[in-house]
Amino acid sequence: MAVPSFKILYKQDTIPKSDVTIKAIGYQWYWGYEYPDENIIFESYMIKEEDLKENQPRLLTVDNEVVVPVNKVIKVLITANDVLHAWALPSFGVKRDAVPGRINETWFKAEKVGTYYGQCSELCGIQHAFMPITVRVVTDEEYAQWLAEAKMKFAKEPILQNEYKKLASK
Ligand SMILES: [Cu+2]
To answer: Which of 16, 44, 77, 86 has its CB 3.0 to 4.6 Å from that of 23, i.e. a possible disulfide?
Structure first.
């Protein structure tokens, strides 16, 4: 895994005022994500090898990536639904246990746009190695665009998701 070398602001104990909050929930064997302030909820599954497109790394590519804006403080709330998992993103110096019934917090601030990969780093069962973490860091404009679509596509309210499907099928 290529780890880009760039400076990250990282201190586990103090979480600065965050611009975006995301919640990561470990399941056997995938990650679920919520953007609690945006009413967004989705699941993130690894893409199987036979379904990868060109240049997509095996074991690390997911169907729905976490998308965050560059140069912003991202707070991550981390928990698990079933057994212990761990949300780890080495490029950002982030690694926190995902514990059922508890919420751990961390944060990061990515200073370069790009796609960053991590993996569950707690042995959580036979498919432990197949629940990657993929974060796409984008510009403010791209984030606003993604957010507008995600608010329908991944809406907590099923009625909005249905509207999205209708629009998308036109
Ligand atoms: Cu896991």
So the answer is: 77
